Amino acid sequence: MSGASLRLVGVTLVWGVSFPCTRAWQTASERSGVDELLSALTLISLRMLVALGVLLAWQPHLRRANSAERWAGMIIGLAFLAGFALQTWALAHTTPALSAFFTCICSAWVPFIALCLGQRVAPLTLVGLCIGLVGCAVLVEGWKLGRGEWLTLGASVIFAVQMILLDRFGKALRAEMLSPAFLLANGLGAGLLAIAFAATGHGVTNWIGWTGNMLSDSKRAWILVVLAVFPTALGFHWMNTYQPQVSPSRAALIYLLEPVFTVVFSVSIRLLTGSKDYDELTLPLIIGGILILGGNLLVEWYTGNTPSCDFEERGTMLSLTGPPVPEADTLEAGTASSENRS
């Protein structure tokens, strides 16, 4: 396994930690009486802005991104924010493992998105998506999706689009240079949305006071620090840097490890604390998880074993975006040369 692939495995590990941490934040905010969406936007803003400071202190050369890289990072970041807000909001209503498995299905949405765009898609890839969706149904009690599961499914579709954008831009620009603008777009975007949401509800002053009270608790402050440093500063930077260095199919396969790590962390927390906010290792969780992972594997196996690069036969992420991206030296002035790509 290449160094880029190993780092993406590390990304899935730290992302696995993020689901229980976000669940703990949302549970605490629910007990304080604050709206779950406002709580989600607040956490995203704080998490991303703190992570941006950590990242620039750790990798100061990232400040030298050119205008094309900044714009690309902003576009990818805003697309990600739409999905991330839904996912974080949903964790007020669902458990970490369910959230992770539902998010995982984003890879299998790619052929469906292509079908909606009028492209011809191999039936086997759609079969993989259907298997994954059946796995989602098995995971939930009574085969009925609740609010949290529906929100996370919506987030998974948006994450599929974000992965496509990253693959397109990351191969034409210095991928690691996208990270600061990516984090800034999320932090500022979520912060502005939180202010607007607070102004129409609890009031901005009350929201600021609530945020201060949340952070005055050492446990919640540490949750923010862990989320900002590991899954965000480290995780997203490595994702932006190393995902473009591997094929979209391999990246999607590696990302299947994320819910597996989440299950390990969430089940362990429940065993240690007895809290029902986390997951119990049940038969539906195991079977549903296997079906979701199996559906994704079917899609990626077919993609990886089809010789043609035509999207009509393969449905890869890059070709979904349209014609191949030109090499960096054919872009307008200011973009990176192909020799300088990460």
Which terms summarize this structure?
disordered C terminus; mainly alpha; 73% helix; 342 residues
Describe the overall structure.
This protein is mostly helical and 342 residues long. Helix content is 73%, strand content 0%. The protein contains 15 helices and no strands. The longest helix has 29 residues, at 3-31. Residues 307-342 have low confidence and may be disordered.
Brief sketch in words of this structure:
This protein has 15 helices and no strands. With 342 residues, the chain is mainly alpha-helical.
Mean pLDDT figure: 81
Secondary-structure element sequence? Answer: HHHHHHHHHHHHHHH
Q: Mind telling me the C-alpha Rg?
A: 20 Å
- How large is the share of residues in beta strands? under 5%
Q: How would you describe the shape?
A: globular
Low-confidence regions: 307-342
Secondary structure topology:
Blueprint (H helix, E strand, L loop, with lengths): L2 H29 L4 H23 L8 H24 L5 H9 L1 H11 L6 H17 L7 H24 L8 H21 L4 H13 L1 H25 L5 H8 L1 H17 L9 H22 L6 H4 L2 H4 L22
